[in-house]
Structures are given as structure tokens and as C-alpha cells.
């Protein structure tokens, strides 16, 4: 509020404000930024002023509610609003506490929307909650001269005990995954070792089979081409077989 000294008929209105001109305590008109004619005054008894900012204001509303799965959450909503020249009179004379009124409408929307969602759905559908709050505010706050530019859910915080439980669940899940990966790696090593042992045994068997075929071929050749060296070949074959048996019976 203010008044003009005697004889001062003009008023300078800042660019970022709207002035309401009152005559004898009654609203007369809104003065736009710049130099305005206020009319004749008599020692401040005839003319008075009220002013309001035309800048965009951001208000933060914090709402406590409960989700469908019985988790208490804190929902933070940022509301951007301003006053236009057309709404300046209503903004000046109709509403005492803007933030309190915003809180009332936002809380109404959040507490009717969030309890229908699970905790995970609340995070997934933040935009829907924001749009519902914005539509409600635009419809209700226009009567108070406020223009709602944007309402946005900027944060959803579960109760501290719930956060601790969720962190513990995630920790146990990571430990379980790590144990499973270690077990799978061990299984792969065991399978590969068994495959390598089987391959080695197969190669050793093939080598022994080739040796025995060579002995048999030698015996057959001796029988075919003469018997003079038959007994010598048989002795050599017996020695080879005995030597192989000794090698396989000795550990390592």
C-alpha cells in the first residue's frame, strides 16, 4: 500500500509489477508498467495503491501419501505460476496465501492418484501425476487471478525404512548373481578338464592300438614269408605287451 503526496498526480509502475489504484479504499483500476495518471489526491487521503509481482514464481509442494502396496512416499511437486494484467485484481484481493492454496489442490490430486498405484508404478507414471495436478490447478486457480504455467513431479521419495529394505534386497540379489556366476564358471572348468582327460585317454588308446596292430602285422609277415624268425617275433611281441602292462600299472 502507499499514497501520493499532495499535488502528485502521477505514479511510476515498475516493469515487473502491477499496481492497483484505490480511491477512498475502493479498487478503481489496474495500472500497467510505466508512467500512469493516478488522479488528484489530497494529502494521501483519496488515492492508495496495492502492488503484485508479474514475475514467474515457482512454489514447491511436498505431499505425504501411501501407495497401493502400503509404502509411504513423499511426493515433491514444483508449480510455476504468474499473474497477468487481467488477473491482477483477483490476485490482489481474493487470495491471502497462494502457496497454501496450491498445497491444498496439489495434495488433493496426489492423495487421490498415488494410492491407486504401486511404488514402481508411481515412478513410471510421474508424468501422469504431473498432468493431473496441472489440470486441477489451471481449472481452480484462475478464479484467484493466477495463471499456472507448469506443474511437475520432481521427486518421489519412499520412507527411509523402505529405502533401506530395498537396498538390502538389491544387495542380496547382486550377491546371489555373483555366486551363480562363480558356480557356472567352476562347472565350465570341470567340464573342460573332463573333456581334456577324455581326449588324452582316447589318444593314448589309439597309440596302443596302433602299436598292437604293428606287432600283429609283424607276426603275420613272419608267418607269410617264413618261420625262421617266428619265435623271435613272438618273444618281442610278448616283451612289448609285458612292458606296456608294467607302464600302466606304475602310478604317475
From TrEMBL:
Membrane-crossing residues? none
Q: Which Pfam families match?
A: Band_7
The name under which this protein is listed is HIR3 protein
Q: Please, which domain of life does this record's source organism belong to?
A: Eukaryota
The gene name reads HIR3
Q: Which residues form the Band domain?
A: 8-170
